C-alpha cells in the first residue's frame, strides 16, 4: 500500500478551544478499512435538521495527485440520518499550507433522530483518493485562504 499522507494537529492558536489535548489523530479501525475515523475533540449533540461545525483540530499533509474526501460514518448516516452539509468534504493537498493551517472542519446536518457524540467518539471518516487532470490543464495558481477561497479570484 502506498503511503501518501500524514495527519497532524493544528496549532493551539488555530484550534482556539480549551479541548486541544483531546484531539486524536485520525486512524483506521481495521487493516482492511479504507476510511480514517475522525474523532470528536469535544462533546456535541445534533438535533434533527440542526447544523453544527466541528473543529477537528486536524490537518493533513497529502502528496500531490491525491485528495482526502470527508464523509459521514456509515452508522451515523444509516441510524440517525446525519449527513455532511456539503455532501462530501474535499481536502486538497495544498490546503495544508492555507492561512488557517489547513484546519479540517466538518459541518454536519442532523437527520431523523437526535445524534449525540462524546469527546473521543468517531463521527466522520476520511478516504484518500487519487485524482487526475486534463491534458490541457495549465493552472499554476497557489492557495492562501481556507474554506471557499479557490473561487475568490
CATH architecture: Distorted Sandwich
**Beta content:** 35-45%
Topology as a string of helices (H) and strands (E): EHEEEEHEEEEE
- How do the strands of the widest beta sheet line up side by side? 1-4-8-6
The overall pLDDT, averaged over residues, is 93
Question: At the first level of CATH, what is the class?
Answer: Mainly Beta
Structural class call reads: mainly beta
Count of separate structural domains? 1
Major beta sheet summary: 4 strands, antiparallel
- Uncertain runs are none
What can you see in these coordinates?
The chain has a four-stranded antiparallel beta sheet. The chain has a four-stranded antiparallel beta sheet with strand order 2-10-5-7. Strands 3-9 form a two-stranded antiparallel sheet. With 153 residues, it is mainly beta. The longest helix is centred in the middle third of the chain and has 7 residues. Helix content is 7%, strand content 36%. It contains two helices and ten strands; from the N terminus they run βαββββαβββββ.
Structural topology:
Blueprint: E1 5-9, H1 12-15, E2 36-39, E3 44-46, E4 51-62, E5 66-72, H2 74-80, E6 83-84, E7 89-92, E8 104-109, E9 115-117, E10 122-130
Antiparallel strand pairs: 1-4, 2-10, 3-9, 4-8, 5-7, 5-10, 6-8
Amino acid at each position: 500500500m502506498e503511503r501518501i499522507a500524514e495527519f497532524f494537529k493544528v496549532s493551539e492558536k488555530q484550534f482556539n478551544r480549551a479541548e486541544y489535548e483531546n484531539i486524536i489523530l485520525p486512524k483506521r479501525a481495521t487493516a482492511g478499512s479504507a476510511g480514517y475515523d475522525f474523532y470528536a475533540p469535544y462533546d456535541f449533540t445534533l438535533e434533527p435538521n440542526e447544523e453544527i461545525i466541528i473543529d477537528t483540530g486536524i490537518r493533513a499533509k497529502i502528496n500531490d495527485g491525491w485528495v482526502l474526501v470527508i464523509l459521514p460514518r456509515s452508522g451515523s448516516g444509516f441510524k440517525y440520518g446525519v449527513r455532511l452539509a456539503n455532501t462530501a468534504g474535499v481536502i486538497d493537498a495544498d490546503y495544508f499550507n492555507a492561512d488557517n493551517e489547513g484546519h479540517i472542519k466538518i459541518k454536519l446536518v442532523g437527520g431523523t433522530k437526535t445524534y449525540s457524540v462524546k469527546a473521543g467518539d468517531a463521527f466522520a471518516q476520511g478516504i484518500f483518493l487519487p485524482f487526475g487532470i486534463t491534458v490541457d490543464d495549465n493552472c499554476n495558481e497557489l492557495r492562501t485562504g481556507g474554506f471557499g477561497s479557490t473561487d475568490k479570484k
